[in-house]
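Could you help me review a protein record that somebody else here produced? What it holds is a sequence and that sequence's fold in token form. I need someone to confirm that the token line plausibly describes how this chain folds. Take the sequence as given and treat only the tokens as open to question. This is what I was given:
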Amino acid sequence: MKKIAAAMLVVVGMMLAGCGSNSHTTGNINGNWAATLNSSGTETFAFTTLLTVNANGSLGSTNFVLTLNNSSCTFPSTTESGSFTLSGNFNGMVTGTFQYSITSAGAEVNTLTLNGTVNNGQITGTWSVSGATSGCSGTGSFTMTPAAG
């Protein structure tokens, strides 16, 4: 009987040790993320950032790096803001709604907005961009995945 109890403790301990191994699936989305934003099958934007969900559901964003591909928009410096609403936690996988906005600073203000959902360890949804820069408009889909950091 003692051997069975000891074996069960080892198994339960191993299961619990695996629960905290990926911060993107344990009730939050804190960590490094890489995003690709596509329009009509062409990558228009890409970015990496370190996201932190605050207690009130707002997003903190640091180490933001935006790459412009096939876009006439300019983002010489940016301010990022957003929100994450946890809507469920099933078997340790976080799900919820995600909203993220990137705004350029300076004379020509451009805004890139993402709206999506968090599911299965990634964030997917739609994006739109508009602004003062001539030709800075568009829409498409995006995917964000955990990135090494």
About this structure: The beta strands are 31-39, 42-53, 59-68, 78-90, 93-104, 110-119, 122-131, 137-146. Residues 1-26 have pLDDT under 50 and may be disordered.
